[in-house]
UniProtKB/TrEMBL annotation:
Annotated keywords: ATP-binding, Ligase, Nucleotide-binding
Function according to Swiss-Prot or TrEMBL: Catalyzes the ATP-dependent polymerization of arginine and aspartate to multi-L-arginyl-poly-L-aspartic acid (cyanophycin; a water-insoluble reserve polymer).
Signal peptide residue numbers: none
Pfam families (UniProt xref): Cyanophycin_syn (PF18921), GSH-S_ATP (PF02955), Mur_ligase_C (PF02875), Mur_ligase_M (PF08245)
GO molecular function: ATP binding; cyanophycin synthetase activity (L-arginine-adding); cyanophycin synthetase activity (L-aspartate-adding); glutathione synthase activity; metal ion binding; tetrahydrofolylpolyglutamate synthase activity
Keyword ATP-binding in annotation: yes
Record organism: Deinococcus hopiensis KR-140
Similarity comment: In the C-terminal section; belongs to the MurCDEF family.
SUPFAM superfamilies listed in its UniProt record: Glutathione synthetase ATP-binding domain-like, MurD-like peptide ligases, catalytic domain, MurD-like peptide ligases, peptide-binding domain
UniProt catalytic activity: [L-4-(L-arginin-2-N-yl)aspartate](n) + L-aspartate + ATP = [L-4-(L-arginin-2-N-yl)aspartate](n)-L-aspartate + ADP + phosphate + H(+); [L-4-(L-arginin-2-N-yl)aspartate](n)-L-aspartate + L-arginine + ATP = [L-4-(L-arginin-2-N-yl)aspartate](n+1) + ADP + phosphate + H(+)
Tagged with keyword Nucleotide-binding: yes
Protein name stated in the entry: Cyanophycin synthetase
């Protein structure tokens, strides 16, 4: 077997709407060895990974996958299921995957499976391949290319021979714990996903964004974007916290701050009772000494506390039980009694053995990675045992409780008992007041109370600390009592009822017209009052500012828009390349539009036919939300056929009018939305049909980008843009105003039908890059040309197109222009320099174009200059650019009299051998 490549679908993709990792696997000779031909393979695999018995596979019931293996399935499919199972064994629960053969490549498969963490998922794939390989007959073993799948395993045991599954699982568990969200952040994220709120991890730890655009909110663990910094600072100073609480009547222990042992001894004596000594700025119970009485105890406790800062708090020790009260948004949402780490003797086993048994609980882990923390027999534990006259090898009597910690923090191994329904109303009020006094939206109030069901004002007790970043573990799975949805309480705080977590997402795809349609929609939505973030081939824009330069039609650019805090609506041009490489950059769209499916980019990444291409582009309407709108071109058969998979309401647009157009007529008769171009008294008009009504939007000639109605392709784009805006309930008047002020100027639509008339001839900058776009351009140019004028074109095509597609572009150019300047693209994409020009010339000549009027220039800047110098007064020179801005500036700055070079000489041509 050999791993050929890997990747990640971080959003919905053509195989599934769920994010998945993928790798391409070449089975090689193992293509002839399905599982039913491998004696003992299935049983051996089930012995090592028995949870595979529960996989339903295509039978959708437990045992289905085992049945598939016994019937015979390919090892790529087996690897998919093993990778899922291994992730689940370390707590990364995932359930779905797919394995698909790669068309035209025998024995090559794309293996895909869901993930929670990318790195852990790839490591699970490596381990799955190693495990499957280890169960094969010796003569069939050997996996190549594992470094492609997981470049740095980090441990020799992962690739060493023989394969050790337990060592691999241990490494996977360590990686998963290091990269996965902790219990607190995980609870908030889970609550968000239950509500359908988008979740984006912003780092490898606990920094997470919820929602999109202006409605996005962020948390780091339990600190939210609403938490005031001044409140966190105040809570971090224990002495200041007590003073602020005492000022509003919250009962707190008496105490002072000291900086040396002698002062601590004096203050403990002054308190006339047991004391607590702790760092002024400590956390998680570190350096805390409880029930301190004698000068010797004071000195020992002071040294321990001083490790965490020179300033140390000495305060009275409040007797009672330790409670954590969680206050979120001014409400008490959970209460837990914390029980210090301890074991119960049985008269037979030692303290050490009892601790090992407690730590074997699968809920316990290291640090904060699990619901409970393992108990450590460290110096503090030994000291507590010594005070009780015990050691780690002592055997406590049956039923004897042995304390191992003074404090009751979960990070030191404590357990919890839920007391949410038992807290006395006055105690709850004290906790709420404490949080409000500090200004915390999420606060953990440490309340000492002999009896939580009675007021501490009556029984004694009080608030000893306030945590500005409380952990939720204690409330999520208490050792006793009911778990509490504290993550849901935080989401209620961030998104109160009726608030929105998302911004409208309008996604558009198609072979031609995407950029112009997206710009039209963004322009209209700006008129509607939105701050629009939109993406296209020129870059990422927010409002009137371009924040990123370059082709921005993929998922990364979409995420950039959706993360921007100013954006109130997102308009996303969505191209084929990003869909195939990584999927979508969003989980669902409010409006999805497919403009057309035409021949372009075929033969790339498994997209060989127009139906393949249609399947890819249909993803944009397959992710439309239930209440959203799918917009389809009724005049394009492959696009119109997507109505079978489109979600939400359906809108059709058509430039053919209603006569002889039954599909649109039936759609309108059903009361659905349609936007149609129809003949009017003084030219074509755009008409909107919906709910049995008919509304005239405007004459097509009133849209400047149509050049008085001559540019039919921009009429089609305006139809689509109108339907998309109606999907967001934009009033017709606003749409009319927006389209009526949308021009084809370079400023509003760079590289799309930009006209410059300053040189005595007309120059049009227009990115037509496939035969259909060239045909639409040809139709417009024939309407625009004057008698006796010539059409001159600078034409290129990316090198990753098929030979026949490049020749077709040449033939299309030949049908349009009188003079053609062929140039090479900036990136041959694997082709020899000049090869694309050669193929275009072959297509042009085969179409009957005279070689005398063909010109070949390698570099774009030289080709632009050559094209402009070919033009005479009255001519139209069409330039199809790659570097749009640089070419436009070259056009604007061109001076016809600045050069005297012969337009037929070597400056304008490259010899045929070079071409």
């Amino acid at each position: 077997m050999r791993v050929l490549e890997r990747g990640v679908y971080r959003g919905p993709h053509i195989y599934s709407l769920r994010p998945m990792v993928r790798f391409v696997l070449d089975l090689g000779t193992l293509e002839a060895w399905p599982t039913d031909r491998l004696p003992g393979f299935t049983d051996a695999l089930l012995t090592l990974v028995p949870t595979l018995e529960g996989h339903g596979c295509s039978y959708q019931q437990p045992g289905g996958f085992v049945r598939r293996m016994r019937e015979g399935t390919w090892l790529g499919h087996v690897t998919e299921h093993v990778a899922l199972a291994l992730q689940s064994l370390v707590g990364e629960d995932t359930t779905r995957g797919k394995t698909r053969s790669v068309r035209g490549r025998a024995g090559v498969y794309t293996v895909m499976y869901m993930y929670r963490d990318e790195d852990a998922a790839f490591l699970a794939g490596l381990l799955a391949l190693r495990l499957v390989d280890s169960l094969l007959p010796p003569e069939l073993r050997g996996v190549q290319g594992l470094n492609v799948l997981y470049a740095d395993p980090g441990e020799p045991a992962l690739t060493a021979e023989p394969f050790d599954l337990q060592a691999g699982l241990a490494a996977l568990d360590r990686l998963a714990r290091r990269t996965s969200l902790g219990p607190t952040t995980g609870a908030i994220v889970a609550a968000a996903r239950r509500r359908g709120i988008p979740v984006t991890r912003l780092d490898d730890h606990s920094f997470v964004q919820f929602g999109y655009g202006r409605n996005a909110r962020r948390v780091r663990a339990s600190v939210t974007g609403l938490t005031p910094h001044v409140a966190v600072t105040a809570a971090g100073d224990k002495d200041l916290t007590k003073r602020l609480l005492a000022d509003v009547g919250v009962p707190v222990p008496r105490g002072v701050v000291v900086q040396d042992e002698e002062a601590a001894i004096r203050e403990v004596a002054r308190l006339r009772g047991p004391a607590v000594i702790k760092p002024l700025h400590g956390n998680h119970g570190r350096g805390v000494g409880l029930n301190v009485r004698t000068p010797g105890d004071v000195r020992s406790a002071f040294v321990q506390a001083a490790q965490y800062g020179r300033q140390v708090v000495v305060e009275e020790f409040l007797p009672g039980k330790d409670h954590r009260v969680l206050v979120v948004g001014g409400r008490v949402v959970a209460v837990a009694e914390r029980v210090p780490a301890q074991v119960t003797g049985d008269g037979l086993r030692t303290v050490r053995t009892l601790v090992e048994e407690v730590n074997a609980d699968p809920r316990r882990g290291g640090g904060h990675s699990r619901v409970l923390t393992r108990i450590r027999l460290d110096a503090h534990a030994l000291s507590v045992l010594e005070r009780a006259g015990l050691g780690v090898d002592s055997v406590p009597g049956a039923g004897q409780r042995v304390a191992l910690r003074q404090g009751a923090h979960l990070s030191t191994g404590a357990t919890a008992i839920d007391r949410t329904d038992e807290i006395h109303p006055e105690n709850a009020s004290i906790a709420r007041t404490a949080a409000l006094a500090l200004g915390l939206d999420v606060a953990g109030i440490d309340l000492i109370a002999p009896d939580i069901t009675r007021s501490v004002r009556e029984t004694g007790g009080g608030v000893i600390e306030v945590d500005a970043a409380p952990g939720f573990r204690i409330h999520l799975q208490p050792s006793k009592g009911q778990p509490r949805d504290v993550g849901g309480a935080v989401m209620d705080l961030l998104y109160p009822p009726g608030s929105r977590s998302r911004v409208p997402i309008l996604a558009v795809t198609g072979t031609n017209g995407k950029s112009t349609t997206a710009r039209m929609v963004a322009h209209v939505l700006t008129h509607a009052g939105h701050t629009v973030g939109f993406t296209n081939t020129s870059g990422v824009y927010v409002g009137n500012e371009r924040i990123h330069v370059g082709d921005a039609t993929g998922p990364k650019s979409a995420r950039m828009v959706l993360s921007h805090p100013a954006v109130t609506a997102a308009v996303l041009e969505t191209a084929r390349g990003g869909l195939l490489r990584e999927g979508l950059g969003f989980d669902s769209a409010d409006v999805g539009a497919v403009l057309n499916v035409r021949e372009d980019h075929l033969g790339l990444r498994g997209v060989d036919t127009l139906r393949d291409l249609a399947r890819v582009k249909s993803l944009v309407v397959r992710v439309v939300s239930r209440r959203g709108l799918s917009v389809l071109n009724a005049d394009d058969p492959l696009t119109a056929g997507m109505r079978r998979v489109a979600r939400g309401r359906l809108a059709l647009f058509s430039a053919r009018g209603l006569e002889g157009n039954p599909p649109v007529q039936e759609h309108i008769a059903a009361g659905e939305l349609a936007v149609v171009c129809e003949p009017g008294e003084n030219g074509d008009i755009i008409v909107v049909y919906e709910g049995g009504g008919r509304s005239v939007l405007m004459p097509t000639a009133d849209i400047p980008a149509t050049l008085g109605g001559l540019a039919h392709f921009n009429v089609e784009n305006a139809l689509a843009a109108t339907a998309m805006c109606l999907g967001q309930r934009v009033p017709l008047e606003t749409i009319r105003e927006g389209l009526g002020t949308f021009t084809s100027s370079f400023e509003q639509s760079p590289g799309r039908l930009n006209v410059h008339d300053a040189h005595g001839f007309r120059v049009i900058l227009d990115y037509a890059h496939n035969p259909d776009a060239l045909a639409a351009q040809r139709e417009l140019l024939r309407r625009m040309r004057r008698p006796g004028s010539r059409l001159i074109g600078m034409v290129s095509v990316p090198g990753d197109r098929r030979d026949q597609d490049i020749r077709h572009v040449g033939a299309s150019a030949a049908a349009t222009f009188d003079e053609i300047v062929f140039r090479e693209g900036p990136d041959g994409r694997g082709r020899p320099r000049g090869d694309a020009m050669r193929l275009m010339a072959e297509g042009a000549v085969a179409a009957g174009f005279s070689p005398e009027h063909l010109h070949f220039v390698l570099e774009e800047r030289d080709a632009v200059d050559a094209t402009l110098r070919l033009a005479r007064p009255g001519d139209i020179a069409v330039i199809m650019p790659t570097a749009v801005e640089a070419v436009w500036q070259q056009i604007v700055r061109y001076r016809p009299d600045a050069t005297a070079a012969d337009t037929t000489g070597e400056d304008a041509r490259v010899d045929e051998d070079t071409a």
